[in-house]
Amino acid sequence: MSSIKLAIQKAGGPARAAQLCGISSRAIYKWISSGSLPRTEYTGETDYAQRLAAASEGAFTAEWLLEEASPSKAA
User: Fold this and answer.
1) For residue 30, which of 49, 8, 57, 63 has the smallest C-alpha distance?
2) If you ran DSSP here, which 8-state letter would residue 70 be given?
3) 37-70 confidence digits (pLDDT tens)
4) What fold is seen in the domain 3-74?
5) Closest by alpha carbon to 37, among 48, 52, 26, 25?
6) In Å, what is the CA distance from 41 to each residue of 14, 51, 70?
7) Predicted confidence band at 1 (pLDDT cuts at 50, 70, 90)?
């Protein structure tokens, strides 16, 4: 299982992750498909990793998710 899929699962699933991040479920499924967070997460425009980590009740940190779900790792 990819790290992004695991993180989304720990945060409550795709629908909950979408709600937490203020985006569509379709966007969450795109993350799962690509195995990475969007570019905006690495340019400081968004804080999705932090939101997901907070909802995971300590299952992972935002820093771990950013490292594991980076576009370079997914490639």
Assistant:
1) 8
2) -
3) 999 999 999 999 999 999 999 999 999 999 999 9
4) 434 Repressor (Amino-terminal Domain) (1.10.260)
5) 48
6) 18, 11, 9
7) confident
